[in-house]
Amino acid sequence: MNTPISCEFYDQLIVAIQRKIPSTIVYLENEEKSTVKGVVTELMMIEYEEFLMLKGGKKINLQTIFSFNGKRHKEG
What we know:
CATH architecture: Roll
Largest sheet: 6 strands, antiparallel
Distance between the termini: 16 Å
Strand content: over 45%
């Protein structure tokens, strides 16, 4: 079951998109923590799940994100 995404997290994402802020994202990929740096270009829904899109085309499910620019969003 998906955990609701906090409004504060959405606000951070929107600001990063609008200002084209280079961001560091720690997330779960293939059951391991991964870190990626890039510029978030948009938020999207794919089959009822929310994703952020990085410049270059990488998609990250919001449910898998532990931290965004050093701010924790999930325990892990």
